[in-house]
Amino acid sequence: MSDATFSRGARWFQALAGEPSGKAPVLSGDAPLGGETARFIAVVPDPGNRFPRATDNVVGLEQGWLLARAVREAIAEDEASGTRRPIVAIVDVKSQAYGYREEMLGIHLACAAAVDAYASARDAGHPVIALIVGPAMSGAFLAHGYQANRIVALDAPGTMVHAMGKEAAARVTRRTVEALDALGETIVPMSYTMASFAKLGLLDQLIEGVDADTPDAAQIERVRDVLSAQIRSARDGSRDLSHRLESAAARQNRAASIEVRRRLAEQWDAV
Amino acid sequence: MNTVATSHPAPMLRESFIELPARERARSLLDAGTFRELLGPFDRIESPWLPLQGVVCQADDGCVIARGTIDGEPAVVAAIESAFQGGSIGEVSGSKIAAALEMALRDCERGKIVRPVVLFETGGVRLQEANLGLAVIAEMQAAIVALRRHVPVVGVIAGMVGCFGGMSLAAALCSYLVVTKQGRLGMNGPEVIEQEAGIDELDASDRRRVWQLIGGEQRTATALADQLVDDDAAAVGAAVRSAFAQGVPAAHRSEQVDTFLDRLARIDPASVTPEIMRDVYNRDLQNNARKEQA
């Protein structure tokens, strides 16, 4: 890999999985993890990509379909056996690709294909873990990570989850970036920090004390241990996403999500 | 005397589907007299986040969930109201859709099939609820993927807002998509593309170009949507019923990885146009080509 492609996603892929079998923009490969074999998948910059709006670590047309292929390969290989290998999505995605070709050629479907593949893997019993090592933004995160059984993140500068990039969100809402940050302190879902994301019950573990850009061997080992523990937890839990509404944090900050489900269930069958 | 003429009343004027509010859209798709709303305005489950930002709530949060029957079979319709916050998805409106799909899944798993319809009319995540909007869209997507193994999930994009953002992925996961010429389907709206990539990439004020790229007619011609119908409530209803009659497709569009990677490989990004895309993506043309070869 050249230096230009050595993003955080690429660095963590190499740290956890070694040399990839796929090449940019989607790295995938199998490697040992906690006494079994796991599939690791990352989206990385691809300066030579033939789609000019999709050369960065973004999810474009090819990225979406290639993610789907990497996940579905693992599902197909395990289908006949009793094994369901864990799938680790290494998340470092700035955004979806913004371009007229992308829209015309159906980037919404390419991203949906990745969603479909991850959700199908989870439903088939593969523990799917999202490891956030950089930005996990908007539609790109939906396609790569948000269907996971468990979500963990490095507590490091640059890791964030949000529906819209800060500068764009400031423009659209006619606020300054500073005002947006201030708003995030009082309105939890508006915040860009991982701590706030955790308050929504959506983050299973924040991994502290790890250098996201130049991790040492001990730090990489810590991340492996976290992944192994989350894989065990996922195997013990349900295959759907109901886990996200069960924590104390969710009961506090997602009370409306829980209430909607409770009352809809009451009214579902006519009396 | 012409008995055919007398057995029908005077020719009915078409009823526009686009002009119907969400509640009436849902009612028009269900068998007459079967509409029953769940979590309606009197339940008053409103957004907990909008008042904190000085935005007035709506008692149904811009989303109508209705049960009833379609062709006599149990059904649930989720209809997004574009008149409230542009149909944007907040914690409550999105959870209503996710919960309705999860309940339909529960029934299907117990052997009781429920026909799910989603009426998409949305710009995507409601920015005032940012991360929760995104989270509930992920939950909705999970439910669609699980549910469509049992029963087709039918999506309708009628217009005029269209379907964008994370919700465009939800639409793409549906078994069948019914669209009108006025319905647009894309991940990033034209204004977002212009803002992020510049006016040389896309001039959002060039309406004709936008329709050519992501309008319902082009989406159907390139097999990214299934049925193109007129803006006519009866026609939309007939298309939805015929989608259910077709049953669960052998392979959903979003599962056809090799097919779409192959199509993408045949596209030259430097020269691709909406017309070229029709040639490469059109299912009928390809079928004809296969017949010719055979």
What Rg of chain A is obtained from the alpha carbons, in whole angstroms?
A: 19 Å
Q: If classified by CATH, what would the architecture of chain A be?
A: Alpha-Beta Complex
Number of helices of chain B: 12
Overall number of domains of chain B: 2
Task: Give the neighbour order of strands across the main sheet of chain B.
Answer: 1-2-3-4-5-6-7
Unreliable parts of chain B: 1-7
Kindly provide the name of the CATH class of chain A.
Alpha Beta
Q: In percent terms, what proportion of residues of chain A is strand?
A: 15-25%
* Helical percentage of chain A: 40-55%
Oligomerization status of the protein chains: heterodimer
Q: What's the level 1 CATH class of the largest domain in chain B?
A: Alpha Beta
So, CATH architecture of the largest domain in chain B? Answer: Alpha-Beta Complex
CA distance, first residue to last residue of chain B: 53 Å
Overall mean pLDDT of chain B = 93
Number of strands of chain A: 7
Low-confidence regions of chain A: none
Q: Identify the CATH homologous superfamily of the largest domain in chain B.
A: 2-enoyl-CoA Hydratase, Chain A, domain 1
* Elements of chain A, N to C (H/E): HEEHEHHEHEEHHHEHHH
